[in-house]
Amino acid sequence: MPDQSSQTDPLQGKIALITGASGGIGYATALALGRRGCSIAVHYNAAKAKADALVAELSQIGVKAIAFQAEMGNFDQVRKLHADVVEQLGHPDILFNNAGRTNTVVGMWGDMGSISIDEFEHTWRVNTASSYLLTQLCLPNMVQNKFGRIVFCSSVAAGVGGVIGPHYASSKSALHGLLHWIAIRHAKDGVTCNAVAPALIIETSMFENPSEQLKDKIPVGRFGLPHEIASVVEMLVSNAYMTNKIIVSDGGMTPSAF
Predict the structure, then answer these.
(1) Taking Cα atoms as reference points, which of 241, 151, 138 lies closest to residue 190?
(2) Is 168 a catalytic residue?
(3) With pLDDT > 90 as the criterion, what percentage of the chain qualifies?
(4) Does the global pTM surpass 0.90?
């Protein structure tokens, strides 16, 4: 049996593109992968100050990091994001499709009619189509190098409907079909594809004012934290045997994967 202590970290020297890196989960994941020796492409849309702060924090620990701005609902900007990352850092070995929007929140008992088809489409463009496009752009080099790690940030809403609305839940569940196809198609190419499906994670822009009533739904009795989701992503990108999986991180709300 080989001596594990003598082996280098499989993430050392890899390039990770993290969308929505200025938010709680993206920020924590960037730090986690940076500490593992990855260079980090820090994507943001409007939160430039947070993105710059993350780059500075990563730089302080010796990590090469650059911030890149793009509106993920604009496909031309998504294409430019990829081109800029390749030009300034290199082709991504790791892609964490983390950027997303909730848009209008109608709740569990809301009116589907209050979500217009235009808002539905915009939600899907940001949450689903941009991830599809960015993955499509990153895959060829991953396949060529026989190494790639793709992770989608889904949501418990994809499996149970959730508390935001049908536009958001459906945009996240669509990622599951996408990852299953990619994982099976490219497993022999050294490319893994998985998702993390969080629920009720505080210290994020999507979940800023949680109610105690929501906390009562969580068996562990508290809300989740960004670094706890980041640790799941870290496991998925460091484990070459993990693919075609959706890891639900919800404090025990759901009894199994979906």
Answers:
(1) 241
(2) yes
(3) 83
(4) yes
